[in-house]
């Protein structure tokens, strides 16, 4: 993916987080965001945002970072 595509993914996950931030506690909201990514994002999109979060992640909101981190857990499939 190009830098433009990565920037678009960053924007999208931050928007999803902004829309779902009210979904209960911070952990519940992060779970809702992660659930959305699992359900609607292609594997390549999820891997790109995971890689970005591991390498930098500075443009991700706190909630987005937490949601993306939960995608990396071995017990969960992406």
Describe the structure in your own words.
It comes from Marinobacter nitratireducens. It holds the Pfam family FdsD. InterPro entries: Formate_DH_dsu. This is NAD-dependent formate dehydrogenase delta subunit. The chain is mostly helical. The protein has one domain (3-71). Helix content is 72%, strand content 0%. It has helices at 3-20, 26-40, 43-55, 62-71. Helix 2 (26-40) packs across helix 4. The relative contact order is 0.20. The mean pLDDT is 92.
Output the keywords.
single chain, 78 residues, mainly alpha, 4 helices, 72% helix, 0% strand, Formate_DH_dsu, NAD-dependent formate dehydrogenase delta subunit
Structural class: mainly alpha
> How would a crystallographer describe the biggest sheet?
none
Number of helices: 4
Radius of gyration: 11 Å
Amino-to-carboxy terminus distance: 18 Å
> In which range does the helix fraction lie?
over 70%
Strand content: under 5%
Poorly predicted parts:
none
Give the integer mean of the pLDDT values.
92
From the spread of the alpha carbons, the general shape counts as globular
- Say how many strands there are: 0
Number of domains: 1
The helix/strand series, from N terminus to C terminus, equals: HHHH
Question: How would the blueprint of this fold be written?
Answer:
Layout (H helix, E strand, L loop, with lengths): L2 H18 L5 H15 L2 H13 L6 H10 L7
Helix pairs in contact: 1-2, 2-4, 3-4
Task: Summarize, please.
With 78 residues, this protein is mainly α.
């Amino acid at each position: 993916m190009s830098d433009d595509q990565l920037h678009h993914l960053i924007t999208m996950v931050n928007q999803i987080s902004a829309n779902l931030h009210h979904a209960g506690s911070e952990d519940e909201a992060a779970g809702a965001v992660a659930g959305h990514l699992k359900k609607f994002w292609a594997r390549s999109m999820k891997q790109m945002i995971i890689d970005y979060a591991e390498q930098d992640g500075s443009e991700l909101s706190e909630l987005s970072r937490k949601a993306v981190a939960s995608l990396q857990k071995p017990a969960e499939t992406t």
